[in-house]
Design goal:
about 60% helix; Amino acid/polyamine transporter I; seven-stranded mixed beta sheet; two-stranded antiparallel sheet
């Protein structure tokens, strides 16, 4: 049985619902800002570690010469790229397009399906497919980010003592293993620990950058957009290939959007505008000033900004910050996976909600362990942040392009934004995005194939599950038939009634449970008292006891068959026996005998049939993916010794 997700109206967001008031609310908001700093901004906030250094890396297949013009142009490109893509697009516009408080590309796909289909089904289907591919690339980003971030920080040991280079990979692996082991504590607990560390990080890198600027204020010329534009136009051959590394300055932008459900738009916006963005830009400007002073500083401009006495503490702080950087994409992956499951692109996964106030704060065990294995594999395979940097940009820019396309379509469909406004905005942003994507595609043979392969694999799994689910749902509906007609057949028939109570879990009250049909067809009996029960999950932490259940006698109050809808909040684990126990005797006329009740689950056994619905390999993939679904008996707390699984076989 599939658990249904109830949603609020478009104007409501759970993260801003009136749970607390006055001084308590202010405390909660401050805690959310600190938590956001510890979870959301780790990725984009640690980009100064390697972004500028990677641009001027002499081992790059397309090296950028270290000249004054190139340094000013690159730093200016970084400043204005982050301004336009992150501050203007993501923070200013995209984060206003939320799905009941949830953000990210999957939220846009939800809005597209809700609003876009009204304006043209074909365009909506094509854009949804592009969005799914963008979400798939984001999973690739979620695998690469922890590997490159932690590697880049631990590699600072080689600046302290070159002989420590051999320890970089094993230390990185231990750190990453510890990071994934603490995920089950929830993003609130993780953010509460990481938040203060990131505050120190941003203050330190901002101060170090400011010191670099003071040593050579000429770098402030890079704040003028003329240097970025002049570099692109006047030195296009060099600038184009430089874009493949400049993109590293805004990796984490999509994670910032995807993590919105964890902390809310306001908390993320405030943290970005007042601390994260200024600190990062000061660091880039300071590093640029250091390179202008002496081109040899390009080897490690971030760490060379620190005085000798501060180098070791900075390496330790950078290591902590990059661990936190990994957190941003991990929690983003949890959000994307949960939304994908609700939309029908993945099976129902076991999801643990870890916050009383934020519906989006979740932990998905299966995704956590998959990411852990993938990240460790990348660390041991590539062994350096420079090698991974070539693979990084494609996943980031690909996801950003898809997000931009979906956002402007949703803006037109949902808000009716004038076409000329959309044309200007989309034209500017997509031109920038596509330039970055094209530059990163030049790195295909140098590692950029990896995120494309990951994205294509996940895209295939998600679209196969969606298609298979549509086929199974249609076939299942045909097998089930309508509930009210089935109940009428039972009333008019001559079935033997046996003593006792049977509870059949079902998707809703429109169709008859497969298990109930199987019981009637094969055993030719029905119980004296039958409850058909469906579960709704509401977008609130907990549902009050007086709103827990709703009873419907299906039009017949004397035949012993009742439909019950049980509602649970997202922080509550659905408890079917407990919900039934909360019913008043008058509501069921005293028919319920829970200590003797038997629980029936409808199970579908899938097999690859000969009907040409999908390619045979996709049928096998769909069946294999179905085994990832959470166990229904455990999910709904059914007593194992009184739970019966019945159903039918369906050919895919």
């Amino acid at each position: 049985m599939a658990e249904r997700q109830m949603t609020t109206s478009d104007e409501e967001t759970p993260s801003e619902s009136p749970v607390v008031r006055g001084p308590v609310r202010d405390t909660v908001r401050l805690a959310l800002v600190v938590g956001a700093l510890g979870v959301v901004f780790g990725d984009i906030g640690t980009s100064p570690l390697y972004a500028l250094q990677t641009v001027f890396n002499p081992q790059d297949p397309h090296p950028v010469p270290v000249t004054e013009t190139n340094v000013l142009g690159v730093v200016s490109l970084m400043f204005w790229s982050v301004m336009l893509i992150v501050t203007v697009f993501y923070v200013g516009f995209a984060m206003r397009a939320d799905n009941d408080g949830e953000g990210g590309i999957m939220a846009l796909i939800t809005l597209l399906r809700r609003w876009g289909a009204r304006r043209g089904r074909r365009a909506a289907v094509v854009l949804a497919a592009l969005g799914i591919f963008g979400a798939s690339l984001f999973f690739g980003d979620s695998m690469i980010t922890p590997a490159i971030s932690v590697l880049s920080a631990v590699e600072g040991l080689k600046v302290v003592e070159p002989g420590l280079g051999e320890l970089v990979v094993p230390i990185t692996a231990v750190i990453i293993l510890g990071l994934f082991l603490v995920q089950k504590r929830g993003t609130h607990a993780v953010g509460r620990v990481f938040g203060p560390v990131m505050i120190v990080w941003f203050v330190v890198i901002g101060a170090a950058g400011l010191a670099g600027i003071v040593s050579d204020p000429a770098i402030l010329r890079a704040l003028s957009p003329t240097y970025a534009f002049g570099f692109l136009v006047g030195h296009f051959g060099t600038a184009f290939f430089a874009l493949a590394a400049v993109v590293l300055a805004f990796t984490g932008a999509e994670a910032l959007y995807a993590d919105m459900g964890h902390f809310g738009r306001r908390s993320i916006t405030r943290a970005w505008l007042f601390l994260v963005y200024p600190a990062c830009m000061l660091s880039y400007l300071g590093q640029g000033a250091l390179i202008l002073e002496d081109p040899r500083n390009v080897s490690s401009p971030f760490f060379l900004l620190a005085p000798d006495w501060g180098l070791v503490p900075l390496v330790l702080l950078a290591t902590a910050a990059t661990v936190i950087a990994s957190q941003a994409v991990i929690t983003g992956a949890f959000s994307v996976a949960a939304q994908a499951a609700r939309l029908g692109y993945l099976p129902r996964l076991r999801i643990a909600h870890t916050s009383e106030t934020e519906m989006g704060q979740i932990y998905v065990p299966w995704i956590n362990w998959l990411l852990m294995v993938s990240v460790l594999t990348l660390v041991f395979a590539f062994r350096s942040s420079t090698s991974l940097a070539y693979a990084y940009g494609v996943a980031v820019t690909g996801t950003i392009v898809m997000t931009t396309l979906l956002f402007f379509y949703v803006a037109r469909a949902k808000w009716g934004t004038p076409r000329w406004v959309l044309g200007v905005g989309a034209g500017v942003l997509l031109t920038i995005d596509v330039l970055f994507l094209a530059a990163n595609l030049t790195k295909i043979t140098h590692g950029a194939w990896l995120p494309l392969l990951i994205g294509l694999t996940i895209f295939t799994v998600m679209t196969t599950w969606q298609r298979g689910r549509e086929i199974v749902t249609a076939e299942r509906t045909r097998h089930e038939g309508t509930l009210r007609e089935f109940v009428e057949e039972l009333r008019s028939g001559s079935l033997t009634r046996v003593p006792g109570m049977a509870v059949f879990l079902n998707r809703g009250k429109e169709t008859a449970p497969l298990a109930m049909r199987a019981n009637v067809d094969h055993n030719h009996v029905r119980h004296d008292h039958v409850v058909i029960m469906s579960i709704d999950t509401e977008p609130v932490p907990r549902v009050p006891a007086d709103q827990r259940v709703e009873v419907d006698d299906l039009g017949y109050s004397d035949d012993g068959i009742t439909h019950v809808t049980a509602r649970f909040g997202y922080m509550e684990r659905p408890d079917v026996p407990g919900a039934l126990a909360s019913l008043e005797p008058a509501e069921t006329e005293g028919r319920l005998r829970l200590d003797q009740a038997s629980y029936f689950l409808s199970k579908i056994e899938l097999q690859a049939g000969d009907v040409p619905t999908m390619a045979r390999w996709r049928k096998r993939l769909f069946i294999a993916t179905s085994y990832l679904a959470a166990d229904a008996a455990e999910t709904f707390r059914l007593p194992r010794d009184r739970t019966v699984v019945m159903g039918s076989r369906i050919d895919v």
